[in-house]
Design brief:
Layout (H helix, E strand, L loop, with lengths): L2 H39 L9 E4 L9 H5 L6 E4 L2 E4 L10 H5 L5 E4 L7 E4 L12 E3 L9 H15 L10 E6 L3 H13 L3 E5 L15 E3 L3 E3 L3 E3 L4 E2 H15 L3 E3 L3 E7 L2 E6 L2 E10 L6 E2 L12 E2 L12 E5 L3 H13 L3 E6 L9 H12 L3 E5 L1 E7 L2 E6 L3 E5 L2 E4 L3 E2 L2 H6 L4 E4 L4
Length: 433
């Protein structure tokens, strides 16, 4: 075979492969640029929690991180380097860092533009106050799987500490969300004398997610019971499993006990709640970053028809419902009410556009408003709540809207007062690990 034929024989297929690869990369880059531009235009270019930062000097553009992310198009490839293209969709899985073959990814909290307030916590989950620990969402780990793992690891560290003479408990766990529930099981597994105090119900914030919401897509290992290995798990399935475990193990959990104070008393802690004062050698804070729901601060807000979480939209069928807020929880609540019930739904938001919400939720609300199933009131604020109506202030006028139920989705207040009163130092993270 002469040289020309050999070149054709080997060169043409090689050229086709290389050309196909180059076209594929171009398509990926175009999609990544489009996603990034859309995120910037919508004001969704800031990650909400733990997120990856890619070192362009180390990144080799292999795309392993983009394929590893369980959330889809969070990471993209631009100019041969990985980038965070839809930051608001990132929920801190960390799978991207594990998949990177060259160690180009660091997971950090906050950005140069938006800091995140976090308690100072060491590698052992202990704060600057010896014996006082933090795990889960309060420490920045909002993902259920990560929070569950932190709860277990924190108890591993707590079990090594000496017991305070005269303390009623070895450990008091504050909060029965993912981290707190995992910690409660770990404490039982370790033989610690522990009690968990929960201001609401088992599951914490998870229990108040919308009905049917998928909450887990990857395994999570519970102390003493192994991993939950099923695929996508809904809120209801997860809570059912947790409640079954709590009943089976007879976990000592005191519900409807909001903790009001944590004070050092010699070698132990005094924890004050609705149930009185309890003492413990160690305390683990596993409460959510939301703390208490943010209130509107308007007349009539104490009426029984005002709620701060919507669990099942069907309970409001046939009612006049006002949803207040502009984030994803508000849009999801309003859309679920309009789609699943015959409720008359009004969505009030003080802004001119839903810049803090995901595109799919905005599209969902816009479609419902276009069909007349949802009354959208932008540039409006609640001025007063009355037994049978709500008064809204808008730029052009004040108006009364018939109303039976008000669902406030205005976020929550970080329990900073409780933390600082306990002596915990806070720090603002601006893109730091």
């Amino acid at each position: 075979m002469d040289l020309g034929v050999e070149v054709l024989w080997y060169g043409v297929p090689l050229a086709l492969v290389v050309g196909g690869y180059a076209l594929s990369r171009k398509r990926i880059e175009r999609r990544s640029l489009a996603l990034k531009a859309a995120a910037v235009e919508a004001g969704l270019d800031e990650p909400p929690t733990l997120h990856p930062v890619i070192d362009p000097m180390k990144c080799i553009g292999c795309g392993a991180c983009t394929r590893a992310c369980p959330e889809g198009d969070v990471l993209g490839l631009i100019k041969g380097k990985a980038e965070l293209v839809t930051p608001s969709e990132c929920i801190g899985h960390g799978a991207c860092r594990a998949a990177c073959p060259v160690g180009a990814i660091t997971l950090v909290f906050g950005t140069a533009r938006r800091g995140i307030d976090l308690p100072q916590v060491g590698p052992d989950f202990q704060t600057n106050v010896p014996g006082l620990f933090v795990a889960g969402e309060l420490g920045g780990m909002g993902l259920i799987r990560n929070a569950v793992e932190q709860g277990r690891q924190a108890v591993d560290e707590i079990a090594k500490r000496p017991r305070a003479r005269g303390a009623e408990y070895d450990l008091i766990i504050v909060g029965a969300g993912p981290a707190g529930f995992s910690a409660s099981l770990a404490a039982r597994h370790k033989g610690l004398n522990a009690i968990t105090l929960e201001q609401d119900i088992l599951g914490g914030a998870v229990a108040h997610y919308p009905r049917g919401k998928l909450v887990m897509s990857s395994p999570a290992k519970l102390p003493g019971f192994g991993a939950i290995t099923r695929g996508d798990i809904s809120k209801e399935d997860l809570l059912r499993y947790w409640n079954d475990l709590a009943a089976k193990t007879r976990l000592p959990v005191a519900y409807e006990e909001r903790v009001d104070a944590i004070e050092r008393d010699g070698a132990m802690f005094r924890v004050t709640s609705r149930g009185g004062v309890r003492t413990a050698s160690s305390v683990l804070l596993s409460v959510g970053r939301r703390g208490s729901p943010r209130r509107l601060g308007v007349p009539g807000e104490d009426l029984s028809k005002v709620v701060y979480r919507m669990i099942d939209p069907r309970q409001y069928a046939g009612r006049n419902v006002l949803v207040v807020g502009g984030g994803d929880s508000a849009l999801e609540a309003a859309a679920s009410l309009a789609e699943e019930t015959d409720a008359v739904v009004t969505l009030s938001y003080r802004g001119t556009a839903f810049q803090r919400s995901k595109p799919r939720n905005r599209e969902r609300v816009d479609a419902l408003a276009g069909r007349g199933r949802l009354d959208l009131r932008l540039n409006s604020e609640v001025a007063a709540i009355e037994p049978d109506r709500v008064i809204l202030d808008r730029a052009e006028a004040r108006e009364a809207v018939a109303n039976d139920i008000v669902v406030v989705c205005a976020g929550g207040v970080l329990p900073t007062a409780l933390l600082t009163a306990a002596g915990i130092r806070m720090e603002t993270k601006f893109g730091a690990a």
